[in-house]
């Protein structure tokens, strides 16, 4: 999946990312302001700049993950201003400034929009292998909606589940809105 994703052209990424953003923003869940976590896309992931800007413009309180400099495998969440200068972390992924006054506890989230490498119809996902999101998702409320965004080809027949894996509730692709069977 990573090889296929790496081969995507910027035109395909832009086109499909725009379709994903339109499909996600059309969901009734996002018709009223929510506390939402998203992410800053990296390399050939679904591009999130337009989606993140649209969520903020629609009045959602949006936060993004910041990799903990102190605790390996942990992320914290921070709100940000659209004009904020983002800072690359140790992996090269851009993050908002980790200002204490913008910290958002995972328990406050109503939805998390997640990146993924692969997913299946049951909501299992493969990330990048570090377990960062699985650790973060253990801290959210059970009612928090977990939505993966992906290109259509990233769907797999079955992703093996580990006890620590946190399955998705929904996945949005350029052509589908999948409610995951659990």
Task: Tell me how many strands there are.
Answer: 12
What is the name of the CATH class? Alpha Beta
Provide the β-strand percentage band: 15-25%
Q: Total number of helical segments?
A: 4
Radius of gyration: 15 Å
Helix content: 10-25%
Please state the overall shape, judged from the principal axes of the Cα atoms: globular
Q: Could you list the spans in which at least 5 consecutive residues all have pLDDT below 50?
A: none
Q: Any guess at the CATH architecture?
A: 3-Layer(aba) Sandwich
| Strands ordered across the widest β-sheet | 6-3-2-1-7-10-11-12
Biggest pleated-sheet summary: 8 strands, mixed
Question: Could you give the order of the helices and strands?
Answer: HHEHEEEEEEEEHEEE
**Count of distinct structural domains:** 1
General description of the model:
A hairpin with a 7-residue loop joins strand 2 (61-67) and strand 3. Helix 2 (10-25) packs parallel to helix 3. This protein has one domain (2-25, 33-110, 132-159, 173-179): 3-Layer(aba) Sandwich (Rossmann fold). It has an 8-stranded mixed sheet. Helices cover 20% and strands 22% of the residues. It has helices at residues 2-6, 10-25, 49-57, 132-137, and strands at 35-37, 61-67, 75-79, 87-88, 94-95, 103-104, 111-114, 118-119, 125-126, 145-149, 170-172, 177-179. It is globular and about 45 Å long. The chain is an alpha/beta fold and 182 residues long. The chain has 4 helices and 12 strands; from the N terminus they run ααβαββββββββαβββ.
